[in-house]
Amino acid sequence: MMIKFFRHFRRRLISENKMGRYFKYAIGEIILVVIGILIALQINNWNQKSQQRKSEQTYLSNLLSDLNDQKASIKTQLAYEQSYFEASGYIIKDYEKNKTLTLDSMFFIKASHLRGRRTFVITDPTYTVLFSSGKIGILQDNDLKDRLIKYYQELERVEKVMQNNNTLLVDQVYLANYQKLGYDFLPDLSSVIQIQLSNKNMVLPKYEPKLEVIAKKILSNEQQLLEYMNAISVRNSVAIGNYSFIKELEAATDDLIRELKKTIND
């Protein structure tokens, strides 16, 4: 309707030979068109920023959820590592007290428990999507973005260190020595649960006093005792080291959770 009006008005000005007024009108019309385009661009830009903000909020919320899951995993890992350095510490203190080992049921329970180790699990689905897709730039807070990158790099570093510790020290040093010298007084509880879930009719190994006697005889040998105590020392150091790494990650995770909550609520 407006277009027809402007067209009719232009024709009337030309027909009446009012070229001065026509040119003024034409310039005014161009200005109006430019203003309209600028307004449209501004609205489009506003809509894009609004969509980006919504997308950023979604990613921030998902990152927060991942970090809460990571914190739960960290707490579980801490509990495992603490149980390992407490069990190894129990054996070391017993030896230091009498310069020999008290080879009773408690010793074999603690020693058997030290065969286990838990793989550290990284929970990073949202960060992986952001980084692999190149969408990490959607996060407006550059300081927060840098902290997230450094945090997940540290997670990967700790994962590799703990994996190497478990493979090279727990498996190849402690477990290898205990398999030669010790006797599994009790089966590993996590393995028992998995066995029971997969096969309800599975018969678990029974305690064999004769095998415990053989293990005691082996460990009464000074050379064998030395080898085992060295392995215990390694197992204790690994547990303490792993616990320290995870404890630092716990603090870093708590800091990031607080920062994300603040950013989301702002």
Topology:
Layout: H1 2-15, H2 19-98, H3 105-113, H4 125-133, H5 142-181, H6 189-198, H7 209-219, H8 222-265
Helix pairs in contact: 2-3, 2-4, 2-8, 5-8
Distance between termini?
46 Å
Q: Helicity range of the residues?
A: over 70%
Beta strand count: 0
- H and E order: HHHHHHHH
Give your account of this protein's structure.
The protein has 266 residues and is an all-alpha fold. It has one domain. The chain is built from eight helices and no strands. The chain is rod-shaped.
Identify the notable features of this structure and list them briefly.
266 residues; 8 helices; mainly alpha; 0% strand; 82% helix; single chain
Short description:
The chain is mostly helical. The chain has helices spanning 2-15, 19-98, 105-113, 125-133, 142-181, 189-198, 209-219, 222-265. It has one domain (2-265).
